[in-house]
Design a protein that fits this description.
The protein is of the alpha+beta class. It contains ten helices and eleven strands. The protein has a four-stranded antiparallel sheet with strand order 6-5-7-8. A three-stranded antiparallel sheet has the order 3-11-4. It has a two-stranded antiparallel sheet with strand order 1-2.
Length: about 375
Amino acid sequence: MSIFLFIIILAVLILAHEFGHFIAAKKAGIRVDEFGIGFPPRLWKKKIGETTYSVNAFPIGGFVKIFGENPDEESIGGKDAKRSFVHKSKWVQAWVLGAGIVFNLLLAWVLISAGFMMGLPYSADDEKYGARVEGSQLTITQVMPHSPAETAGLKGGDHIVALYAGKDTLETPEVASTQKFIASHEEITFAYMRGEEIKTTIVHPEDGVVDGRRAIGISMDRAGTLKLPVHEALYAGILTTASFTWATMTGILEFFKNIFVGHADFSEVSGPIGIVGIVGDASALGFVHLLSLVAIISINLAVINLLPFPALDGGRLFFLLIEAIKGSPIKPSIANAANGVGFIILILLMVVVTYSDIAKILHG
């Protein structure tokens, strides 16, 4: 079930991205040769106007073929060259290349806004909306990798109901009282709610886990459900999308910086296999949690594509910038070769992350 959900989510995210390129190219008068759902081999096709619409065998995502995006003799000097991507202004090219990123962010905004309309998990301590949060409970917001909490099976989204250690009991846990209880015991039984089910697990706090103090490696917050009317949901949605986008950008840039200095921790990154598990966890918590996860993945997809790396939209935008500065186009052979090498590097990075996912499962 998790794999099926993951395929649907990935298809929606990539189709939204490719539709951004498609609609921007169409509006700019650029010839679009094909818009495909899934990847070949082709199962069905229909040509409407100049564009072929196809359904393909591998249902993960989709693609759009824009005339002249990968320059060749026909797009540079052929009979339809004036409608080629390569002959449009730099501003138009930049918009077509960036439209996929914009559509991923728009999708995230729509999903987060819909979440607020239905009732989204939210901090009761928030200055703006905290007073309107209903049913607040002490909630685990993050679990550190390789921590006692992760070993015990605790996950983000779990609600802490009570803590037990011998004769000591904490039945109305708050952030401060829970931290104090954890710091003063060797073995603690956590009672927590996941979805509609109350579970228990034994956790062994360790010294120095967080800021040199005795802890189990979790972040906590008193959170409940925030439900907003449409106009407020749209406003809160765009603010939340902007906040998540900024946090994602800083996190990804920090990760790549660590790669170059040799300190990258791939255990903190999830590839397709890891995301399947995350999707399963989110769906178990409810539809709104799954909606939020899809929005976060869409933001990640947008930010990653913005990176100035060959084969990504950001890399193509970077080439445009170079062409604008030097006043002449980059040779098609050089651009195509760079994108090919970039694609190979991305595949190798995906292999490394997938290996890390498998290693986490085997050692989990």
